[in-house]
Amino acid sequence: MSSSAEELVDASSAMEAEVEESFPFSESARGAVDNLAVLENISASVLALDETVPRPTVGPNDCSLDRYRRHNWSANSPPSAGLRQEQKSAVSGRTGVEAPAWVDEPPSRLWFVSSSGGSVTCRARGAPPPTLTWVNHDGSPVTTIPGLREVYNNGTLHFLPFPSEAFRAAIHSTSYRCRASSPAGTVLSRDTHVRAVVEQYWEVQVYNQYVFEGNAAVLQCTVPPFVKDFVTITSWTQGHTNYYPSPNADGRIQMVSTGQLVVRDVRSTDTQLAFRCRAVHTLTSATHESANSARIYVTDTRSESAPRIPEMDSLVRVQRGATATLLCPAQGHPPPSITWYRQSSSGVEVPLGGAGGGGGGGGVRQVSRARVSGPVLTILATEDADGGTYRCYANNTEGVAVLQVDLEVLSALSVRVTPPSVVADAGSAAQFTCVISGSPVNQVTWLKDGHQLRPGPRIRLQGGRGRTLRVEGVGVSDVGVYQCRAKGHHDSALGTSVLTLGDTLPVLKYRFIEQTLQPGPPVSLKCIAAGSPTPTVTWTLDGFPVKHSDRLVLGQYVSVDGDVISHVNVSSVMAVDGGTYRCMATNAVGTASHSARLNIYGELYQVEHHGEHVE
Q1: Buried b (16+ CB within 10 A) or exposed e, 388-419
Q2: 105: helix, coil or strand?
Q3: How far apart are CA 469 and CA 222, in angstroms?
Q4: Mind listing the pLDDT tens digit for each residue in 467-504?
Q5: The pTM of the whole model exceeds 0.85
Q6: Is the Cα dihedral 246, 247, 252, 258 positive or negative?
Q7: Which domains does the chain have, with CATH numbers?
Q8: Count of CB atoms within 10 A of residue 288's CB?
Q9: How far apart are alpha carbons 142 and 155 in whole angstroms?
């Protein structure tokens, strides 16, 4: 046999290996067995063309391929128009198949209590209906783990109730993505952050504060770190008086949106007051009041001192639309004046209010939605533009202290890709732009059919953080679903676009090889072609059209991926069947062809083609 093995394409199907392993035929008959297996596994999409015709069954030793004749089309005529319409794909420029799209995309988070469990569901549309699976953050498939996690075919991911000792971080404190896949492509959902909260005892604590007279005191309600994300400070109490969050400084005592209690212009009589805080668990609805009370102790001030500001958070995050509160609890004697500034984009500091009249007094200064009352800066109904750097200056006769705080306004991310669909001719360039709203945006990545794209000779990421994707030299392998993924601190979002291919030359994705056989066994030759429009495959033997006979059957069908699978099957090969076979895939753009010899041992023969004498 010649070195025709080099003609094998890299994309040889796994089916071939399975058939060869199950039925160890001789080397010379491998090509015949190949396509017998193909015929045995004709896709349901082909058989659905004629529901009334029963599917034939062929064993490994059954070479009567004539029975397949009624399931095949002539190699010299195109596949039926109905079939092409049924099999056409949205991602390859054909109709009838729609790329997956989300109907119900899963939420960005799922928090639940260990004793109750939780579920998250995704739904997607497409034609054919996409398969729904769940994957981990690293792309590995999510599987059912008895007693802890169940994965259903309808897109539901269910977490069962579990005892505290069964907690597993890799299951109960991680992120998941839903994946919808079909022959038209694959889309991924946003990250769903799962956190299972194991119920355990917790309580809140308050602590005494020591301040100079005339300054402001800030009381903290301290929550244990392991439940901090799930607990909200609801109120403070002092005797029979309740204090609830308020943006208005109507009196000396104010509970701010961040849960602290601010007491302005502290007096010596304030030492008689005892304060407690209340908190609620957002998942269990359990309410706790601090077991102890906090008091304010006034420090004797016989000497003057420069302002000092206790250590505070340098970064404050707030959801868009919520109230932002920045605190500057400076201490000094005499009581310092508090002034707030906002740093503009050009670096210039813009004042937001005037002196506070001592650490606790002063009228409320309002600039648009920003309110300043001594050590408290309140910004109502925050917007993205409110994010930035703020500075507090505390001044008295002894000096100045400065506190800098960065405010970050968080808003739900939303992504769309323009254009939503692209039709590109082979060899041309396709460009997608990622339009992102919401903040912050920490990372932008591009995916194709669920796999991350990396920059390369043909893949270019341009613009800020690679928000523009350009694909050079578009080919068949570039067809599919493209997604732009934006990731923030606690959420992510994806936009989708579909790349379809315009008219392209046929490409032979699989080609038969040269074979040398003894007379008698079956043989099958196969070509798989792709292109747009869908190509038609024809066969010749020594330059003459291959025709049906009692022993020879031609057939082809279009797979769900739009590939044309064509074959020549000979039930019992004879010397007359030897020669050079050629398969030719043709569409409106052009032709691609492949030829190889079929060598049959035997005596020389003569055959006439259309009246010509050939020896």
Answers
A1: eebbbbbbbeeeebebebebebbbebebbbee
A2: coil
A3: 47
A4: 999 999 988 789 999 999 999 988 899 999 999 988 88
A5: no
A6: positive
A7: 4-90+504-614 (2.60.40.10), 98-197 (2.60.40.10), 205-410 (2.60.40.10), 419-501 (2.60.40.10)
A8: 17
A9: 12
